[in-house]
Amino acid sequence: MIAAVVVDVPSGSVNKTFDYKVPPGLENWAEPGMRVIVPFGPRKLQGFILAVKQSSSVKGIKNITEILDPLPVLTPELIDLGQWLAENTLSFYITAYQAMLPAAMKATYEKFFTVLRPEMLSSEVSVLFSASGELSLNEVTKNHVHLLKKLQELTKTGVLDVVYKVKDKANKKKVKFVSLGNKTEAEELLNQNGKRAEKQKAVISELLSRPPGEYSLQEILHETGASLSSVQSLCKKGAVYIEEKEVYRDPYQGRNIKQTEPLPLTENQQNAITPVLDSIENNEHQTILVHGVTGSGKTEIYLQSIQSVLDKGKEAIVLVPEISLTPQMVNRFKGRFGSSVAVLHSALSIGEKYDEWRKILRKEVSVVVGARSAVFAPFENLGIVIIDEEHESSYKQEDHPRYHARDVAIWRGKYHSCPIVLGSATPALETYARAQKGRYQLAELSSRVHSNPMPEVTIVDMRDELKKGNRSMFSNELMEKLKAGIEKGEQSVLFLNRRGYASFILCRDCGYVAQCPHCDISLTYHKRYGELKCHYCGYKEITPSACPSCSSEHIRFFGTGTQKVEEELAKVLPEARVIRMDVDTTSKKGSHEKLLTSFGEGEADILLGTQMIAKGLDFPKVTLVGVLAADTMLHLPDFRASEKTFQLLTQVSGRAGRHELEGKVIVQGYDVEHYSIQLASQHDYLSFYNHEMKTRKLHQYPPFYYLGLLTFSHLELMQVVEASEKAASFLSKRLSPDSLLLGPVTSPIARVKDRYRYQVMIKYKNEPELRNWFEEIIAHFQKDKSIKDLQITGELNAQTLM
Ligand SMILES: Nc1ncnc2c1ncn2[C@@H]1O[C@H](COP(=O)(O)OP(=O)(O)OP(=O)(O)O)[C@@H](O)[C@H]1O
Ligand SMILES: [Zn+2]
Ligand SMILES: [Zn+2]
Question: I need a surface site. Which of 5, 29, 209, 790 has the fewest CB within 10 A?
Fold first, then answer.
């Protein structure tokens, strides 16, 4: 038997399968979709079996070393999907397959020295091998680095050998359980006397007092005060059994989640759910856009659609943007579907994620709620994929494989003949355009549940405030409303748009701004740690007390926006209890949840935060939403700036007045005439859409054109310039007359990690060969020995130009 294996070497020359023999002992075991370890040159590598066959035309093929999985981890569907994914995102097959699995299943490799000719070793070296006969390179570089050179020489002369070992991080958590063994033996023990027997007797009586079964050893030891050794000696006598068993790490353990029942749908909801239910009923793939204003009850539509999928014995995937994957959100699904829900969230530990994923593989759950990569959940009888807040940019992975979860979902929907539901109050322009063209079905929810009014929005021009002599960051109206809210015992949300408002330090004498020495970007000031940090490469330095450029002491820190707002609030509204939520206050595991819970329980009057409070929150007592610096994002070099501003304002405003109490929104900024701010305040998506579509058409941007993007990076500027010019001229000879070629130009962020960045952009409507041309260009430079270390990434449908 022969297995075609794709190996863990992300490189163009090995981006294919290699044939390996399945040794006779493993023939009944090997199946496509399993992870294996195979020899590859001098190394051992992890790989995936993509196919098995009877014969191979390749001569001298080697044996598979080991099969890592008892059952395939990639279903036949995922094997196909991976191929499609790799080809459409210009990634390597191995990268695509790895992206579908939890990180724990990706191997790490370690190098070891072993001894071939022990008689040739000096005692100094020999002693290092005495313990286990081998020595890891890791250990050498850590503790014996002075011997490294010697070890390398010994390897060259054949005294030592180097072997590669594959480490599988996918460990399972095991717990010991104890149960009653031979009953007569146990009862006899109870009649024994002696001090030593006391603890053993306690264990026996404890087990006898409980219903027959097995109990966690830990718990029994704790209850009885017995030691492990007394239980072990009981085990030797046959009075109890100890068994080690695999358990899941459950991050939601011990939590009481209230069970919920389906709500009777409003007429609006009824209309919107109909196309979804039809698609489920008829086993017919449809992509349905549920365009519903904030608070219109989209979640209830998701829940009831899932119920009807489960009733048919099928499975459901719900995607939620990373930052709104809050416990509140998860509870909505766990509350309805209980333990049949698995959660895949990046805040889980590697082990927890692996355990949740295995519940899916073993069919122990039928609903998955998760962030982007949950779209690869290995269900085999998929009945629906729901993408909540479908416009969110986090659904696009900006690293290999550069996939969009929406595209993957639709691929899977076609495969399983099931509906894909895209939900949003502010759909991406691309999505709405497709719905208007009839490529997607459109379901509109134009009012809130029970006709709660949309909150009234007031826009405040902060330039006017300044003219009136108000120098604070809060307008008079916002101050008044905040105060009134506290008096009435209602709650407020203050949102600071932090994008484009990053905190930095500035010298007031010479204008110096601290920059990252490796990237063309200013350093972000973290007050808490007294540090300046680069968000692109992680570079850090201590904040200077004087200007590094002119030695002036007039250096000013523009503290994290939210910190500054918090300080201001404490001055002008000392009575307010404030909870601040931003990257600094939520970096510890669980802190995000804690803060939200305490706000929900009324322990604060004001929730102050960044992007992370914009979405999904549903608190009945919130009546006021204040938006500070609504316009900062408009000035980013991003053709989606207006769209993102509109989306964000709509989302934040949507947090107010969702229940009985009426809501009010105050939006502050300097460039408030902009249509995206004006139209967001009128809750007018359609006018925004029409306006923005005109702009996009005029400037030839998506959805009228696709953006093909080639990004080049290298340590030397000349190399990037030359390579990108070559690529541009290659493309210009081939592109159809309808396509536009722009560049090469420097990327908006011109340098990252000391590498200069250039890009070539192609705006196109139909260019079927573009993928092949990109591949040709990438392959050409990979072979070109005169340019080392040039990095090129290609994208056929880029979402941003950064
Ligand atoms: N049919 C219904 N009857 C009564 N209450 C409902 C019904 N449907 C939804 N609700 C309630 O209305 C509120 C808003 O619904 P939901 O949070 O699903 O809105 P949404 O459309 O997802 O809003 P957003 O886009 O802001 O997240 C929730 O508290 C929900 O429990
Ligand atoms: Zn200075
Ligand atoms: Zn940097």
Answer: 209
- Cα atoms in the Cβ-side hemisphere of radius 13 Å centred on 235: 14
| Cα–Cα distance list, 353 to 105, 249, 327, 364, 453 (Å) | 11, 9, 16, 15, 41
Whether residue 411 sits in one domain with residue 296 = yes
**411, 445, 479 - which closes a domain:** 445
Percent of the chain residues topping a pLDDT of 70? 94
Question: Do residues 419 and 351 lie in contact, with contact meaning Cβ atoms separated by under 8 Å?
Answer: no
**Which residue owns the Cα nearest ligand 1 atom 23?**
295
310 and 288 in a common domain: yes
Q: Are residues 240 and 365 in the same domain?
A: no
Q: Residue 295: left if φ>0, alpha if ψ -120 to 50, beta else—which one?
A: left
Which two three-digit tokens encode residue 705? 């054109």
pLDDT tens-digit readout, 118-171: 888 888 888 888 777 788 887 887 888 788 888 888 888 888 887 766 666 656
Q: State if residue 294 touches ligand 1 by the CB under 6 angstroms criterion.
A: yes
Whether ligand 1 lies within 6 angstroms of the CB of 522 is answered as: no
Question: Token match 């509350």: residue?
Answer: 335
Determine the residue of 446, 449, 613 to mutate for testing ligand 1's pocket, defined as the one with the most ligand atoms within 8 A of the Cβ atom.
449
What is the ipTM for the molecules in this complex? 0.95
Is 802 contained in some domain? no
Q: What tens digit of pLDDT does each residue of 428-445 get? A: 999 999 999 999 999 999
The answer to whether residue 212 is domain-embedded is: yes
What's the 758 CA to ligand 3 centre distance in angstroms? 17
Is the CB of 295 inside a 6 Å radius of any atom of ligand 1? Answer: yes
**For residues 51 and 79, what is the distance between their CA atoms, to the nearest angstrom?**
9
Calculate how far, in angstroms, residue 297's C-alpha sits from the geometric centre of ligand 1.
3
Identify whether residues 550 and 563 lie together within a single domain.
Answer: no
Report residue 282: phi and psi, to 5°: -90, 5
Q: What pLDDT is attached to residue 169?
A: 60
Residue 253 lies in a domain: no
β-strands 791-795, 706-714 pairing = antiparallel
Distance CA 503, CA 558 (A): 5
Q: What CA–CA distances, in Å, run from 467 to 445, 479, 607?
A: 42, 17, 29
φ and ψ at residue 581, rounded to 5 degrees: -125, 110
Indicate whether residue 693 lines ligand 1 (CB < 6 A): no
Q: How far apart are CA 626 and CA 270, in angstroms?
A: 33
Q: Is 269 in the pocket of ligand 1 (CB under 6 A)?
A: yes
Which is nearest to 281 in space by CA: 271, 290, 270, 273?
273
Q: Identify which of 300, 390, 454 to mutate to test ligand 1's pocket (most ligand atoms within 8 A of the CB).
A: 300
Q: Can you tell me the distance from the alpha carbon of 122 to that of 206, in angstroms, rounded to the nearest whole number?
A: 59
Q: Domain of 685?
A: 456-502+559-695
Q: What separation in Å is there between the alpha carbon of 90 and the centre of ligand 3?
A: 27
Q: Clarify whether residues 659 and 781 are in a common domain.
A: no
Domain check: are 164 and 134 in the same one? yes
Nearby residues of 760 by Cβ (< 8 Å), 6 or more positions away: 709, 710, 712, 724, 727, 728, 731, 741, 742, 743, 744
The count of structural domains within the chain is 6
- Cα(758)–Cα(748) distance, integer angstroms: 9
**Nearest residue (CA) to ligand 1, atom 3:** 263
The pTM of this model reads 0.81
One domain for residues 463 and 381? no
H helix and E strand count, the chain: 24, 33
Per DSSP, what are the bridge partners of residue 515?
522
Last residue of a domain, one of 215, 247, 279: 247
Q: Is 235 annotated as a binding residue?
A: no
Tell me how far apart the alpha carbons of residues 302 and 384 are, in angstroms, rounded to a whole number: 10
Same domain as 663, residue 713: no
List the residue whose alpha carbon is closest to atom 11 of ligand 1.
Answer: 297
Report yes or no on 801 lying in a domain. no
Which residue is it, tokens 């009012």?
Answer: 447
